[in-house]
Structure formats: structure tokens, C-alpha cells
Amino acid sequence: MEEFTKESVRKLVSAFVREYAGNHGDEALWREPLVGFAAAGSPYIRNLPEIVTPDHRLPEDFLPGAEAVISYFIPFTEALGHTNRSECPGAGEPGPGQSDDEPYASRAWADAYAETNRMMEALDEMLVSRLRDAGYHGAVPHDIGLDPKTIMSPWSQRHIAYAAGLGTFGLNNLLITEQGCCGRFHSVVTDAPFPEDPVLTEERCLFRRNGSCGVCAKRCFSGALTTAGFDRKRCYKVTVRNAARYGADKDVCGKCNVDLPCSYGIPR
């Protein structure tokens, strides 16, 4: 039976992303991934229906007997982030409640979103297969898209990543990891008894620490994100507009995600 440790999982994820990028010509998209581990029974995960949304699912909903959740972060490169920094004036028909001169996401950003989804799907399949080889079970959370009424997911990848010790939340509602907040999270539930990583307690968001930043809110042209709060329905309208332009699998924006003090590392 193959030995399966936290370190071996981290090496598997790193090697897979590197190989996938090389095989698909995506070397310009991703930096070194991060992997964290949360206990399925951790108090934070058990409280996610109260913290996030009442219908938030628990690990055993996907895998009876779940012991842990493997959470990983795929950080985007600075070069990719830079493409989405400019205010890319739109062209064509405006979206709901928007004028035609409001910025779209860059095409490179939209394409990277869809390609990262494809890569993570393959990565999840590999992890489940390797868990099986080691004598365990793994399951990928399914049917977890946004509820069109609440604009919330019943499986928050960011909150799971927080439980796995990968970072702390910023003003932009994204998790600030060692590699910053510019990237994507995904997870696999398993009955392998991986020791959990500690939840981080030191605040990484400069605005939440001492009010000294707030750049992400200034970048949000739609007004969905402000220092006073977040309007998820207004944000969602922007992603719908980008999907109408680039394709249904590219419902993105990301203006509050790129070229910030916390985009590519921990802000100092």
C-alpha cells in the first residue's frame, strides 16, 4: 500500500500542476500551489451552516465516514493579474444596469478561469485515485454552484481553506495565503486521517488590521465592494456581463483581486 502523508500530497499537487501546465502550454498562468488539511469534525467546519449559509454542506454529505478535507490553492502569476488590472473598456451590448464603457475582465483572465477549472477537475480525479491506491476513499464536492437566489454556494471553498489553515480573509472576502489572494481554491474530502493544520489567527488584511489599505474596494468599479460591506448581487451582475461576452463558463471579474498589496503574497 502506498504511503500517503501530508507532505506526499503536497508534492503530488505541485508536480501535477507543473506537469499539466507544461503539457497544455499554461506555464504563464500558475505559481507554486499550497495545500492545507482540515479535520472533518473541526468546530469551524461544523459551524459553516451558521457562518456561511444554512444549507452549507458538511464533509460527510459527500463521503460518509469523512475524516479530513484536503484544500488547495492555485495562485495565479503576476503577469496574468496585470492583464486584469487595466480598466479594459467594454465593447458591444452592456449588461444589466451597466453602461458600455464600464470595464470587462481581460480575456486572458477569463480564459485562465476556465482553464483552471479544467485543471482542478483533473487534479481532483488524480487525488481521489491516489487515495484509493493508498487504501482510502476520496470524494469531490459536487452540485455546489451558486444558488441564484442567495448568490451563495453550499460548499464555500474559501471557508474550507480557512479551516485548513491556508490564510485569513481580506476586505475583498478573499483568503490571503502565503502566495496572496490572487488564485483559486478547491478541495477533496477523504476518510484518510490526516492531522489538521492550525487555523491562522494573525490578521493579514491591512485594512482589517489598522485601516491602512482598502485598495481592493477602490478597484471595484461597480460599487459592490466598499469598506462598509459587500453587495453580492451587484457583484454577480458584473460576472454575468463578462460571461455574456466571453462564454458561460467564464463568469468572472477579479478587479478586486489583482495588483493589491495582498495579491501575490502576505502584505507587509
Explained architecture:
There is one protein chain. With 268 residues, the chain is an alpha+beta fold. It is built from nine helices and eight strands. It is 34% helix and 12% strand. The chain has one domain (6-246). A hairpin with a 5-residue loop joins strand 4 and strand 5. Strands 1-2-6-3 form a four-stranded antiparallel β-sheet, with helices on both faces. Strands 4-5 form a two-stranded antiparallel ribbon.
Give the topology, please.
Blueprint: H1 6-24, E1 34-39, H2 43-46, H3 48-51, E2 68-75, H4 78-83, H5 107-133, E3 138-139, H6 157-163, E4 168-169, E5 175-176, E6 183-190, H7 206-210, H8 215-219, E7 225-226, E8 229-230, H9 232-246
Antiparallel strand pairs: 1-2, 2-6, 3-6, 4-5, 7-8
Please outline what is shown here.
The chain is of the alpha+beta class and 268 residues long. 34% of the residues lie in helices and 12% in strands.
Radius of gyration: 18 Å
Strand content: 5-15%
Encode the helix/strand succession as letters.
HEHHEHHEHEEEHHEEH
Integer tally of domains = 1
Assign a percent range to the helix content: 25-40%
> Major sheet, described briefly?
4 strands, antiparallel
The CA-CA distance between the termini, in Å, is 44 Å
Please report the total strand number as a whole number. 8
Q: Identify the overall geometry.
A: globular
Organism: Eubacterium pyruvativorans
Protein name: Epoxyqueuosine reductase QueG (Queuosine biosynthesis)
Region (Disordered): 84-103
